[in-house]
Amino acid sequence: MVDSHWSFSNPVAIIAGVGCLSTLGTMLPETGNVLLVTTEGFTKRGLVQRIKDQCVNNDVIVYDEVTPNPELDELDRRIELYKNKSIEVIIALGGGSALDTAKVLSVGLHDELHNPLNSVLRSGAFHRWDKKVHLIAIPTTSGTGSEVTPFATVWDSTNHKKYSVAGDAVYPNCALLDPILTTTLPVEETINTALDSISHSLESLWNKNKTPISELYAKESLLLSIKALPIILSDGSNIEQRENLQKASLFAGIAISQTRTAIAHSISYPLTSHFNVPHGLACSFTLIEIIKIYLNYSKDEASKAIMVKVSHLLTT
To answer: What is the 3-state secondary structure (H, E, C) of 123-192?
Structure first.
């Protein structure tokens, strides 16, 4: 008999449901500085002010200049800028780029290295990210699952490379999922982020690191996406299906927090780095062909049945 074992752990506290954004204030310290990491659009639409209104006893520093595909040099610059600001809590508000930016800042602000991303990532040196600033992740898209994963993507457009900051310290402390925040997401962004979630689930299922628990999350994620996405594309304000698509992203994130991603993501990175193809769309290009290969050799009938449905979704 071949020895085999598996393990599962995800330390992120999850609070979810319609209107749960209003509970944010109860998660903050009585005093201390809060760094809010987001994009300019949320400042213009008033959501940043709603967040600040809940930080009753806190001084809030707003960084709302996050751009798609967080850049290594900009992140290092922000780390050095905020290191002496005595940040007690970081709040990440936005899609995957805002969440990844906040996760990098969370571990970077406690790192003793000067410009730690340049020092570690570009040199390829081993480094343990083991200290962090308390991080609350509030996703506004349904796709990346970054609110429950122990890694953050860093891009280096100068050298056309993609890096990952990874480790248990990179997990957010808390994920706050309010589906209301996703109802104004445009159709194109809804599709692209959902494709990322679908890619996560599929890659987790055909992953050598999968566990019985990660499989359950991945399969349920796909079933939710198959049902919710077509309805949302017809009615973007459907809060029930927006919530289901948000759950799909969450479950897929929990799955890849154990397995990581696989071939579809690996192929996607040059498409994003060199041609600026949106991440979720870049991941999706190879999925149908990989599904065909999986169907030919897999004996997992339950997974195969779900993948047939996914393939149909991707081609309609």
So the answer is: CCCCCCCCCCCEEEEEECCCCCCHHHCCEEEEEECCCCEEEEEECHHHCCCEEEECHHHHCCCCHHHHHH
Predicted model pTM: 0.94
The C-alpha atoms of residue 181 and residue 163 are separated, in whole angstroms, by: 29
- DSSP 8-state code for residue 24: G
| Same domain, residue pair 70 and 143 | yes
Q: DSSP character for 32?
A: S
Name which of 167, 107, 108, 103 is nearest 136 in CA terms. Answer: 103
State the average pLDDT over residues 67-71: 92
Residues 151 and 19 in one domain: yes
Do 197 and 230 share a domain, yes or no? Answer: yes
Q: What range defines the domain where residue 72 resides?
A: 13-180
pLDDT digits (tens, 9 = 90+) for 80-131: 999 999 999 999 999 999 999 999 999 999 999 999 999 999 988 889 999 9
The secondary structure element, H or E, covering residue 60 is strand 59-63
Identify which has the larger pLDDT, 102 or 57: 102
